[in-house]
Amino acid sequence: MEILIYPHEILKCKAEPVKNIDEKIQKIIKDMIKTMYEADGIGLAANQVGELIRLFVIDLREKDEEKIGQVALINPVITACEGEICENEGCLSVPGYQAQIKRYEKILVEGFNLDGNPVKIEAQGLLSRCLQHEIDHLDGFCFVDRLGPIKKALFKKRWQKRQSE
Ligand SMILES: [Zn+2]
After folding, report:
1. Ligand 1 center–CA 141 separation, angstroms
2. 18-72 residue pLDDT tens
């Protein structure tokens, strides 16, 4: 799959809930996991590969103290949140750029797994950040949309320059 680069129109669209977790959805998830590994990323939302459906994949193995493995979450919703933390973030759709982004410190996310079973994920640290980042994608937001006005203007200038090169 091809990863769309910011500011692609599809990255700005809100994704639709998945109605049936069928073979087609499972195939998309499989392909997304493959694409995420090939790009050496830790998370990938469906919008980023041009699918406007509410699902994402994450794999934080060996990168997180909690050593959480592969997660595919469908129709995720943040049902509780607590605290605030500002840390560095990056995105496969904005390659080569990182910025400090404010996020909730702890969250509870509910959704469905690949088999259609309901799951609850209580997250903090990198997993919490990653989940919020991917859910943002499904709502049509990239992490750079969360920058303050000055940083955002600087980013846009830099990004336009880089893309025209
Ligand atoms: Zn991203």
Report:
1. 9
2. 999 999 999 999 999 999 999 999 999 999 999 999 999 999 876 555 556 778 9
Backbone angles phi, psi at 56, to 5 degrees: -150, 165
- Per-residue model confidence as pLDDT tens digits over 60-78: 876 555 556 778 999 999 9
What local confidence, expressed as pLDDT, does residue 67 receive? 53
Would you say residue 102 lies in a domain?
yes
Is there a domain that residue 153 lies in? yes
**pLDDT of amino acid 155:** 96
The total domain count for the chain is: 1
Q: Which pair of structure tokens corresponds to residue 12?
A: 């700005």
Round to whole Å and give the CA distance between 148 and 96: 19
SS3 95: coil
Q: If you measure from the C-alpha of residue 106 to the centroid of ligand 1, how many angstroms do you get, rounded to a whole number?
A: 19
Between the CA of 11 and the centroid of ligand 1 the distance, in Å, is: 9
Let me know: does 131 contact 113? Beta carbons within 8 Å: no
Contacts of 58 (CB under 8 A, 6+ apart): 42, 43, 44, 68, 70, 71, 72, 73, 127, 130, 131, 134
pLDDT value of position 78: 98
The answer to whether residue 3 is domain-embedded is no
The structure tokens listed for 130 are 């990653």
